[in-house]
Design brief:
about 350 residues, alpha/beta, Rossmann fold, 6-stranded parallel sheet, 13 helices, about 10% strand, binds 2-acetamido-2-deoxy-beta-D-glucopyranose, Nod_factor_sulfotransferase
Amino acid sequence: MVEDCSLPSKDVNGAKSHKKYPMVLRTVVLVLVLISSVYICSICLKQKGIMIRSSVMRVKVMDEPCRNPSIEQSELPYIHFPKPTAYSRNECTCTPVRYFAILSMQRSGSGWFETLLNSHINISSNGEIFSVRERRSNISAIMATLDKVYNLDWYSSAAKNECTGAVGFKWMLNQGVMQNHEGIVEYFKRRGVAAIFLFRRNLLRRWVSLLANSHDRDAKQLNGTHKAHVHSRHEADVLAGYKPTIDVAQLMVDIEQTSKWSADAVQYFNGTRHVVLYYEDLVRNQTKVMDVLDFLRLPHRKLNSRHVKIHTRPLSYQIENWNVLSKSLKGTEFESFLQSDYQK
Ligand SMILES: *[C@@H]1O[C@H](CO)[C@@H](O)[C@H](O)[C@H]1NC(C)=O
Ligand SMILES: *[C@@H]1O[C@H](CO)[C@@H](O)[C@H](O)[C@H]1NC(C)=O
Ligand SMILES: *[C@@H]1O[C@H](CO)[C@@H](O)[C@H](O)[C@H]1NC(C)=O
Ligand SMILES: *[C@@H]1O[C@H](CO)[C@@H](O)[C@H](O)[C@H]1NC(C)=O
Ligand SMILES: *[C@@H]1O[C@H](CO)[C@@H](O)[C@H](O)[C@H]1NC(C)=O
């Protein structure tokens, strides 16, 4: 069309006709040209309209089968129907998927907690994926990683792939969460990700666990390998055999820092759907674990973990300089940390 209209030879012809033909004929030709151009334009517009409408229809057709009227309106931002790039969800295409992240700190029971969740048929928690530095080097790298996990394109032994009902991972606050909290909170709100905070109440026990774990990293007490988590009582007893000497000043710095981080983190994520859990409560009370399944809107099931708790004895047996330490904590707000809190 464009070519026809702008050919210079036509212009030359047009100039000639100017002299030869009378006014009437020229007017008729002009009118014909006008009519035909209006006609062509209207066809063009109609075709465009059809194209726009058909693409709208296509999107609708693809989403339609996954509408589930039994899901409340308020839950809609939290359910998703991911379309993984590498495989098809098959018969579970329309099984809604919820997104979560376990936000915690080292030696707070999150390893145990995650294996507990993964024993549920509908949950895939993919481990500590941000322990790899490149994945958290900036907010774009973080978001790309999150996209992959929540699109069910992340491969880990925990992945239940096509039929998963809740997908997430474990994220330590010192793995880029605190530094990038603004972008992460924005992402969680935008994509309806639920935050599960898991903290430990007894920060003295956490400190003992940190020191023992750090000692084993060098000592490699289990046949020359370092283990952060164990699966037998025997292994647990070997690791618990180490009694750290506690520097009270260092302990105070850690308690202060840990308390501040947990409070700040909960504050940052206040505008997202979240729950705050304490390790001690989960260990003592199975109902609290079921509360987590309610939070994820998943059916109750008996959950289990192969993890065996390492430090089970009263702290007086597990700290080398117990007398000094207990004297310095007596009368402070941290005195309760000295009591054994697992024995029922
Ligand atoms: C973010 O980090 C990734 C991985 O380290 C890097 O490839 C990318 O260039 C970084 N992007 C920006 C905007 O800094
Ligand atoms: C849980 O998994 C089972 C088996 O894959 C599936 O039939 C069921 O619909 C799932 N439930 C939820 C809530 O995802
Ligand atoms: C070390 O390995 C031996 C033989 O494989 C095994 O019997 C023993 O229990 C292991 N010890 C520990 C502490 O895991
Ligand atoms: C979170 O926000 C609510 C109100 O929006 C407020 O009542 C609550 O104290 C906040 N919690 C924290 C931990 O900041
Ligand atoms: C266990 O947790 C449930 C719900 O979180 C609570 O109602 C109950 O009182 C707790 N039981 C004990 C013994 O603490």
